[in-house]
Automatic annotation (TrEMBL):
A molecular-function term among this protein's GO annotations: zinc ion binding
Tagged with keyword Iron: no
Binding of Zn(2+) 4, residues: 273, 338, 340, 345
Domain (SET): residue spans on this chain: 190-313
Gene that encodes the chain: SUV39H2
High-level lineage: Eukaryota, Metazoa, Chordata, Craniata, Vertebrata
An example Gene Ontology CC term for this record: chromatin
Keywords of this entry: Cell cycle, Centromere, Chromatin regulator, Chromosome, Differentiation, Metal-binding, Methyltransferase, Nucleus, Repressor, S-adenosyl-L-methionine, Transcription, Transcription regulation, Transferase, Zinc
Nucleus found in the keyword field: yes
The protein's name: Histone-lysine N-methyltransferase
Organism of origin: Aotus nancymaae
Domain Post-SET: 334-350
One Pfam family hit: SET
Amino acid sequence: MEYYLVKWKGWPDSTNTWEPLQNLKCPLLLQQFSNDKHNYLSQVNKGKAITPKDNNKTLKPAIAEYIVKKAKQRIALQRWQDELNRRKNHKGMIFVENTVDLEGPPSDFYYINEYKPAPGISLVNEATFGCSCTDCFFEKCCPAEAGVLLAYNKNQQIKIPPGTPIYECNSRCQCGPDCPNRIVQKGTQYSLCIFRTSNGRGWGVKTLVKIKRMSFVMEYVGEVITSEEAERRGQLYDNKGITYLFDLDYESDEFTVDAARYGNVSHFVNHSCDPNLQVFNVFIDNLDTRLPRIALFSTRTIYAGEELTFDYQMKGYGDLSSDSVDHSPAKKRVRTVCKCGAVTCRGYLN
C-alpha cells in the first residue's frame, strides 16, 4: 500500500502524518506530486525512459527535496500572482507560470501602474487644455491641436507610422470614456502570462488571447530618473547582464525610465531583433515633450501562447538605423549577448 507524508495546513511539521491514498481527497495535489516526481526523474535521466527501478519503495532524499521545493515555489508564485492582480489597475489579468526551474518571484521588484518620479523630478499630470468635441473621430481634436493626425482607426488600431507621437484626449476634454481617442489610458485589455523561458532568457511574457495587429498591448512604466543617473545605473546593470533603461529621447535626452525595481508587466518582456511589439511616444495629461509615456503596440497578429517581445534598441524611432544607437565613448559599456534566436539577430542587446 502507498503512503504519503501529509503536511496539514495551519499545523506545525510535528503533526505531519503518513496517510494511505484512500484517505487523501486532494486530486490536484496528487497530480502535481506525480508530475513533479516524473519531471525530476526525466531531468536526472536526461530523456531516457523511466524504469520501474526508479519507482522505489521510498523516495530518494533528492527527489523528496525537489518535490517540496516545487510545492513551495508553486505557493509563492500563486501569492505573487494574486498580489500583481491586486495592484494592477487595468482590465487584463496577469498569470504567472514556471515549469522550467525552481526560480520563485523576484525579491526586489515592486509593481506600479504609472511613472514613479525619482526625488527632484516633477511630473505635471494635468493638461492645460482639452477638446470640446462631440465626436472626436471627425472633429478638430487634441491631435490636430498638436499638429498631428489622430492615431487610431475605428477598430482601435494604430494607423500612424512609428516615430509619430500619439496625442490622446485628456482629463480636461469634454468627450466621455468611450471616446475613440482614449486607448492607452485604459491600460492593458489582454490577459497576459509572466512565464519562465526554457532557453536561459529568464522571465518572459506571453499573451493568453489573440491580439489583432496594430493594437495597444501595454505601457512601459518605471522610475523616471535623469540621464546622468541612468548612465551610472547603466554601468551596474551591464555588469550584471540586465537591461531595463529606456531613454525618453522623443525631443530631448534629459530623462530615462528605469524599470529594474519599479515597473509593470513590461518589466518582464524580453528583447528580440525581430519583435512583435513596436514603441510609440504618447501624450495624454502630461504634455511635456521631455516626458512622453511609452506604449507598445502589436506589429502583426499575435496568437494565444506567443511570447511578446520588443527591440530594446528601437525606442520610438521606427526603423533601427546606426544613427539611433549611441556609440559615444561615454556609453561604451559591457556588451550583453542577445539570445533572441531571430534569423536577423544582431548578436548583442546593447
